Amino acid sequence: MVLHITILIYCLLLCYCSGFYTYPSNSSDSSITTENTIQESGSENYSDLPSIPETPSNSASVVGLVLGILILVVGGAIWGYFEWNYQITQKFLNKCLNVVIDAPPIIDSGNNGKLIFVAGNLQVGIPFYLQDPFLPIVTVSEALLLKRQVEMYQWQEETIKDGLKAIDYKHVWARSQINSSHFKSNEAHHNPDWDPKLQNATFSCQPEAFIGPYRMSREILKKIPIREKLRLVHPTPIYDSLNKYIIYYDDTYYYLTTQEAVEGEYKPGIGDYRIKYSVLHIGTAVSILGAQDGDTLTRYEGKLLTVESGIISADKLLERKLSNRRTKQYIIRIFSTLLLLIGFILAT
304: closest CA among 318, 323, 286? Predict the structure, then answer.
């Protein structure tokens, strides 16, 4: 219905704009006719009277008309295209609501090609491990992600305004390089270059994962939104030194330094690093809508493969998709209406 009304309004606007503009009659011919009539009807000659200034060129009006019609065409095309797609998507999702079935505990080959709803916790077939390849000080098992966060101990320049303006320097743990070349006293407060191998990084593993009897394809695993908070990996005393660095640790961080601790107590120095690791373990709850293809799920009719974290019903998953598409369509309608309004104003 909305599509039909849109097409009707668009056609009416185009018809109105194309019929609104008419070229003016030849003013010079009419002036000559009027002048001759006056001279014939009276004895006085008014040909020497000041002439009325000619009207400006109509080129600006023509440009406005053409530009307005062009914007009308573009706005109508955008609106019509997305409205048509929205109607198709709406019908498809409503159809999915009627045909979706819950996944049985045992895979039924008769469901191949049908829309299946699967929900549960991710599990893996065989044990696997994740490790930092540059700093093998952390090894975790049954995890999807291992995240490394790195900070360096550096000088930081501060301007103090307490009566008189003064410059102060202090030590800070920073997540990025502080450029000390711009310091007022850069020779006494120099920050070393950041080790390119010690950057923030995320390591992942793509094991063979399952929800019940269904195997999760790589496409499904990539679609899983990571909304669960990563858990801290508490340091353990595995190495005393590694890759030119001496390693110390506490409950949260590993500390990498090139200086020996004084009397066995570590105190950070400029250029030292501290590293924190966090992990996302297997067991994340996932809800999936897709077509059964053997022991896995693919896109239903080449269109629909929805993956969300958490246990969410099939109806709610489809309603979310429809709601998101509806919101997008409202934005497109507003934008297209503005285009049509601008085009109409220019054309008239």
Answer: 318
State the number of CA atoms in the 13 A half-sphere of 144 facing the CB. Answer: 23
Interatomic CA distance for residues 13 and 345, integer angstroms: 11
Beta bridge pairs of residue 150: 275
pLDDT (tens digit per residue) in 176-209:
999 888 887 877 888 999 999 899 998 877 677 8
As a whole number of angstroms, the distance between CA 70 and CA 17 comes to: 11
| Separation between Cα atoms, residue 115 and residue 25, nearest integer Å | 68
Q: Is the pTM of this model over 0.70?
A: no
Question: DSSP readout, 153-214?
Answer: EEEEEEEEEESEEEEEEEEEEESS---GGGSTTTTTSPPPPPPTTS--EEEE----EEETTE
Contact 285, 119 (CB under 8 A): yes
